[in-house]
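Technical appendix A lists one of the benchmark inputs used to test multi-chain prediction within the project. The record comprises two sequence entries:
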Amino acid sequence: MRRVGLIGAGLMGTVHAQAWAQRPGVLQAVYAPDDRARAFASRFGLTACATLDGFWSAVDVVDICTPTPAHADYAVQAAQAGKHVICEKPLARTLEEADRIIGACREAGVRLFVAHVLRFFPQYAAAWAQVQVGAVGEPRVLRLGRMSSPPAPGSWLLDETQSGGVPLDLLIHDLDYARTVAGDVQSVSAVQARRGGRVTVHVTLSHTGGAITLVEGGWAAPPGVFRTHLDIAGTEGVIEWSSDAPQPLQAHGAAPSLPEQDGAALPDLGADDPYAAELWHAYDRLDSGEPFLIEPEDARASLILALTVIRSIESGEPVEVSA
Amino acid sequence: MTPVRIAVLGVAHVHAEGYAAWLTSQPDVDVIGFAEDDPDLGQEFASSTSLQLLPLADLLALHPHGVIVCSETVHHRRYVEAAAQVHAHVLCEKPIATSLADAQAMLKTCEAAGVAFRTAFPARYSPAVQSVRAQLQAGQLGTVLAYSGVNHSIAPDHERAWFSDPVLAGGGAGMDHIIHLVDLLRHLGERIERVSAQLRPVPQWTIPGHDHTDAAGLVTLTLASGTVATIDPSWSRPRTYPRWGHLKLDVTGTGGLRSLDVFAEHLSVTNGRGRQWAGFGSDLNAGMLRDFLKVCTRGSPTLLADGSAGLESLRVVLAAYDSSRSGRPVSLS
C-alpha cells in the first residue's frame, strides 16, 4: 500500500484527510512543524513529522494543501525526494512556479496530479458525459456560475498577492471545466466589481473551436451561501442545472444552522464526496499507470487562463491567451 | 479472492438490465449467466448485456453463490425454490409474489435450505431517506401527523407487457408501486394497521388488451402510531414525461416539515427528442447489490430488506386490492 502524507492542516487539509479516511491506513503522516498541525495529526490519528526529512521517509505520495504560494517549494522538494505529488488547485500562484513544479516532477520521474475537483462533482461529470455522447451536439454557449460568501476575515485568501483572488482561487474551477467541455481558449475578456469587501468577476471566453463561455461569480454572497449553476447550449440541445434546485431532502421553514467558516466556503458535498472521488482517482491511477483525468499540462493551461483573467481585469481589455 | 458467482433468474423486470450492468462492472463478481423462459427476450438480453443465456438447470449446476430473481412476479416462486435447492442466496424483485401463499412458501423453503432470502428495496439506500430516518429517530421532527407519498411513473407495460397482465403481475400500478412506499414507512419505524384504497383502470394509459388492469390508485393507511399516510402509486405520467417518474414522501411533524424527493438530483437535457432528466445522484442499486454481495460472502448487510419485509409489505398491497374491491377499509391483524 502506498503511504500518503499531507502538508497543510487548514480547511482543505481537513477535507482531504476526511476523504483519505475512507480507506483506513492510507493517509499515515502529516508534516507538523507547528501546534496546529500537531493537533491535526492527533485528530486524524496520523504520525506528526516535525521535519521534512522525517516526513519524506514516512510517505510515498505527498498531498499538498497549503496556501498557494507554498505549493512550489514543497512540490519541488517532494519530487526531488522521489515522491509522487498531489497538489490542491491552483497549481501555483505564477506560471514560473508551475513550470518549476512540472519540471521537477518530470526530472525526478514522479507523477503530478492537480486537484481540480469540479470534474469529480457528479452533476459536472454527468453534464460532461452528456456532451461526450452528443446529447446537445457541439457546445456553442456555456454559462458557468460560482458565487460564494467571502472568506473569513483574516484568511490568507483575502491577500490577493498570495491567493490570486476570485479568478485564481474560485473561478479557476469553471475556467478549467470550460476548457474541458469547449476546448482551448483564444481570448479572455473580464471585468471585476468591488463594493464593501465583496467582489464579483465576469469573464467571457472565446474558444478556438468557436464556442463562447461566460464564467461568473465571486465572493459576494451572504454568509453560508454557495450557489453554482451550469448551462451548456449546443447545436442540438441544452443541458441545465442549478444548485437552487430542491435537494433530495428539503426542510421547510426550519432555521438552517450555519457551519462555522474556516477560510473559503465550500459547496454542499452531498453523500458522494467529490474530494474523495478525485483523491482515489489519483491514488488508483498511480497503481494502474493510466493517465490522470487532469494531467499537469491541463492544470497549467487552466492556470494560464486564470492569470489571463487577472490581466484582462487589470488592463480593461480583452487579452489573447498565449501558451 | 474468489469472485462471487451471481446468476440472474428471469430478466422480464425492467430492473434486470441495470443490475446486470452494475454487477458485470465489479471486479469481485462473476456473473455466470442468466435464465429466461421467453426465447426472444433471452436473446435480446444476451445481446444487450453480453451475458450467457443458459437453461435453468445448467445455470444452477454452476453453483452460484447468489441469484437475483427478476422474472414476472408470478414466476418468482419457481425460481426461488430452484435456487434454494442448490443453496444459493436469493435477492428477489418486489413484490416478492402475487399471493401471500407463494410468498410464505418461498420464505419457508429458503429457511429450510439455510439460504438468505432478501427483498429488492433500493430506496432504503437513498442518503436522503437515511437522513430523514435519522431525524425521525432523533425526534427532530416531533410527533408525526402525516405522510404523503408519491410513486408515479409512466406505465411500464409499454416496455414489458406483463406489468399490466393480472395473471403474471397480480395487478397493475397498485402491485408495482404501493410497495416501495409501504416499505419506506416500515423502514421509518411505522406499523400499518388499516388500509383503504381506490384502484382503477385507465385504458388510455395501459397497452391494448389490458384495459381492466388498475393504472390509477389512491391509498390511505392508518398507522399504529396514530399517524395517517397516503400513497399515490399511479402510472399517471405520460410517455413524454422527462423521466420514468418519481419517488417522493412528505413528512408533516409537530417539530418540522420535510419533503423527500429521492431522485431530485438531475440535469435537465433538452434536444430534438424532447426533454429528459438525467440523474446524477447516488446509485441506489449499487448500494443494494453491494449489500447482497455481503450476504453471499457471509458478511452483514446494513440496510438490505429481509424476506419478512417483502412479505409484510405485500400483505399491505393485497389489502389495498381487497379494500378497492369491497369499497371498505381493511384491517391488518
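The two ends of chain A are 38 Å apart (CA to CA). Chain A has eleven helices and 14 strands. Comparable benchmark entries are summarised in Table A2.
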